[in-house]
Design a protein that fits this description.
214 residues; 2 strands
Length: 214
């Protein structure tokens, strides 16, 4: 494992811990998109089916289990424990379009046409756009709590660092994974406006307002 992969994984873990901290400390899920969290849960459940048939490493297995359990737990918090704080009228992105597109791409672009491989490809394409309901929700509200922006930044940074990981592996190991590359570029591009506002406002102690986002 190279340093880019390790730091990316740590950023991914950080994003989940920040989100859990935000929800548990405020006893509220205001500003968090349930639809994005649902998509991420689907991503983990479809990507990590090999958990039951192949052991890559203890580290790999622990990460997979953590992501699955934590994503389901977040859904529980939002759907049941703090349901009263969730406003569905702000979370109106049409998930079915993202699911249909990811399913289509998963079928059209897969390295092997086995169920596990097709579902892996589906999960890669779905993850690339899973943040869209959250970003759309931010556009509708026009602002966000600072801790929520830290969560989104950490989530975006995780995937951006994976681009560096893939570049490193291509240069050092001649490893090619064009599905993950293209999906990763799409995902990072979706964060571009957010990263700019985060840098120019949050990191300078200003309130996060996203009227500038397109």
């Amino acid at each position: 494992m190279n340093i880019f992969r390790l730091v990316a994984d740590l950023m991914h873990l950080a994003s989940i811990f920040i989100l859990l901290l935000k929800i548990q400390s405020s006893k509220s899920c205001v500003g968090i998109s349930f639809k994005s969290q649902l998509l991420y849960t689907i991503v983990f459940l479809t990507r990590y089916l090999d958990l039951f048939i192949k052991l890559v490493s203890v580290y790999n297995t622990c990460m997979k289990v953590f992501f699955i359990i934590s994503s389901i737990y977040i859904l529980y918090l939002m759907r049941y424990k703090y349901k009263a704080t969730y406003d569905p009228s702000l979370d109106t992105f049409r998930n079915e379009f993202l699911l249909a597109g990811a399913a289509l791409f998963g079928i059209m672009f897969s390295y092997n046409y086995t169920p596990i491989e097709v579902l892996w490809s589906f999960s890669i394409w779905l993850e690339s756009v899973a943040i869209m309901p959250q970003l759309y929700m931010l556009q509708k509200t026009g602002e966000a709590e600072t801790i929520t922006t830290h969560y989104i930044f950490a989530l975006g940074a995780y995937r951006a660092l994976y681009l560096a990981n893939w570049l490193y592996r291509y240069c050092m190991e001649d490893h090619v994974d064009w599905i993950a590359w293209i999906a990763g570029l799409i995902q990072t591009a979706l964060y571009s406006d957010f990263f700019y506002i985060y840098y120019t406002k949050v990191l300078k102690g200003k309130k996060f307002e996203i009227s500038e986002m397109v």
